[in-house]
Amino acid sequence: xxxxxxxxxxxxxxxxxxxxxxxxxxxxxxxxxxxxxxxxxxxxxxxxxxxxxxxxxxxxxxxxxxxxxxxxxxxxxxxxxxxxxxxxxxxxxxxxxxxxxxxxxxxxxxxxxxxxxxxxxxxxxxxxxxxxxxxxxxxxxxxxxxxxxxxxxxxxxxxxxxxxxxxxxxxxxxxxxxxxxxxxxxxxxxxxxx
Length: 194
Hints:
Elements: E1 3-8, H1 23-35, E2 41-43, E3 46-53, E4 56-63, H2 70-80, E5 88-94, E6 102-106, H3 114-123, E7 129-134, H4 143-147, H5 159-176, H6 178-185
Parallel strand pairs: 1-4, 1-5, 5-7
Antiparallel strand pairs: 2-3, 3-4, 6-7
Helix pairs in contact: 1-5, 2-3, 5-6
């Protein structure tokens, strides 16, 4: 049984609870519910949980350091469990993908995402798997304000379906690997699932 550390990125505190930047937290909460893993243990400046799902051992973590320092929590958890970045899956919001779509990406840069920037600074590289959850770009206005703002009224009804879809993606990823998961899910609108 292999071990995977799945990190959902977001900001702690009730004021950020349903903001676009917390898409990673939302998916991780849903995954915890589905897998029966309680993500409540305080360690390494984050909330953690451990358990098994889809025949794999999972470590789930939600850094509580705010987005721009989230790499500290994730890197410390990896080191403690003697895991490499190859065992890491990071779930985060992505401006450059339309709302409802996701994209699995292996390695690469941070693309301006402060959570990824922090992770790469702590790990020394970007050699980990990302599940990029599309939040779309604002037509006009400040992208920072948009990212830290709540999902729109037209988006809210689709959030639970989106989170379920990303959990289905993670299940496929663990069972069937990256290429199969990419072919099934990349750029697919998960809010259209039945």
